[in-house]
Amino acid sequence: MGRCPCRIYRGKSTPYGGQGLTHMKNYLSERISAAIAKAGLPPADGPVPFEKPRSPEHGDLSTTIALLLSRRARMAPRKIAEAIVAALEVGEDYIAGYEVAGPGFINFRYSHAYLGRTLLAVLDEGEHFGRTDVHKGKRVNVEWVSANPTGPLHAGHGRQVCLGATLSAMLEWTGWDVTREYYFNNAGNQMTALGLSVRARYLEKIGFRIEESEIQYVGGYIGEIAEEIFKEFGNAKKDAAIDFFRLRGEQWCFASIKRTLDALGVHHDVFFNEDSLYKDGSIEEVIREFRERGLAYDKDGAVWFRATAFGADKDRVLVKATGEPTYRLPDIAYHRKKILRGYDKIIDIFGADHIATFPDVIAGVSALGLPADRIDVIIHQMVSFVDGGEAVRMSKRAGNVYYLDDLIRDVGADAVRYFFIMRSANSHLEFDIRLAREQSENNPVYYLQYAHARIASILRFAQSEGMSLEAAPDVSLLRRPEEIALMKTILEFPETVLFCADSYEVHHLCTYLQALAAQFHKFYHECRVVTDDKRLSHARLALCLATKQVLANGLRLLGINAPERM
RNA sequence: GCUCCCGUAGCUCAGGUGGACAGAGCAUCUGCCUUCUAAGCAGAGGGUCGCAGGUUCGAGUCCUGCCGGGAGUGCCA
């Protein structure tokens, strides 16, 4: 529908924007501290805690400060709460009422003026609503996917792909300067195995007999790579060195992985090549430094890292007797390099199947005297796929792998992005392909998108009725319970994003958006937007616009389309 | 054996970091479209939060021990 009508509110910025709820908490915190001092109570030793009560009867925001103070003040918490309340002065432009409840909670109810201001702030900030600058000036490196370039991404990789992309976006929204990075494992013996597999298929194609044992990677894509080589060179490469096939394989896999990531709208700023660590001498440097610090020694022809000095159960091999490094050495060199590149925070995301590798890396980085505490590791549990009730079986050995491309083709990119992050990363994920594919009310993705499209439809209708949005709406007319509840939900968005980013638990945004959409549908059902009452219609349109904006911003963070029609 | 994750409604899962009567979706059942999208809304049933202790004014949330499921525990990555 062309440009968003909310643009008309630009330039009328209120001082309450962006962090509506945070602003409220800061305000109340300051008022309560003043009341505590006035009442002659001992000051709180931390920030005043707030929480959103589960039950609406307990108000909009609640503090347990009186319960926390009771020990030091040696008074019953309820008495303390009453003393605070007696000394408390808050403005009606923020708070409509408050009372002491239960064992000593102080419950606050927002004033309508506050809700109205926040609503206008949403329209004012538009696609920026939800962004904060809490982490402004800090740099973070997020490394994820980092699948070996020995084949296309399989469906299980999707979890990591989507987690990292969403987390990166959220970090950016809270002020971080984010570098999105992919550690490209193009060294090591898995690449040799790839080269051997490709060569075998190629030789087979041009008529040679091959040993099946040479083929470690059995997927059909190996044949495709061989076919490409054959088309380009015919028989001419029958005596080519293994490096040739290895490189062709790597290039093919890299292109495949990038194409898949692209289909999900996922991008990296840096593809860091593992082999560059060999070329620039980093590997050698790390070994030398380990030796200098007395943390590496030779045994059985291998070079060992004294990991037991850092709490490990046994020492680890850095360089095999064959002279090749184990994966740990380049991993340590890589993380050392990331720290030296000057990040305040380094986040690694990987699956539970790699859980044993990171303690060695952390220990290695510490051993080099570097601040390993800058590294945060997010481990997500495994994924299983079910189609309806049936488990999707896949076996690498039989070569019938369910690839991420297959999944995208089966359920669409939006459902993939949503389903992979809707659950906590700590929980095993069951991905129901049938549900994800279903274009119905059962599918949580459509529920969100439907709410957005429905609002767009209302706006189209309003415009066709000649409604104008030129004047500022009188949001004080929004007094229905459904309208109030919707406004309250909207103002929680920035804190939700911040909470997700700080906790690295992005699934909370899904829970939030579901609640927002539900709140909107209730409002829609109870309150007709476009009516003869022009002023009320105008105010409700503003509420619709704000809801639409938050839905769009949330979906954008998730990398999901926000359709104007469905 | 040891390390990490999980155990909440028939199923899949939330539960903002210790708060006030435990939530959502699906599934089952019942209502609601001549008015802005019914891919929606309203309502019903369904729980000893794996078990047993402990800390606390207060525990689904923290601690310990069991039981059950998953992922690891390589001179593979």
Form type:
globular
Low-confidence stretches: 1-19
Look at the structure and give the mean pLDDT: 90
Strand line-up across the major sheet: 7-6-5-11-12
Number of continuous helical runs: 20
Main beta-sheet strand count, sense and barrel state: 5 strands, parallel
Distance from first to last alpha carbon: 14 Å
Rg from alpha-carbon coordinates: 29 Å
| Helix content percent band | 40-55%
Strand percentage, roughly? 5-15%
Output the structural class: alpha/beta
Task: Count the beta strands.
Answer: 15
Could you name the key traits of this structure?
566 residues, alpha/beta, 5-stranded parallel beta sheet, 4-stranded antiparallel beta sheet, 15 strands, globular, RNA-binding
Give a concise summary:
48% of the residues lie in helices and 13% in strands. The protein is an alpha/beta fold and 566 residues long. The strands form four sheets. Strands 7-6-5-11-12 form a five-stranded parallel sheet. Strands 1-2-4-3 form a four-stranded antiparallel sheet. A three-stranded antiparallel sheet has the order 8-9-10.
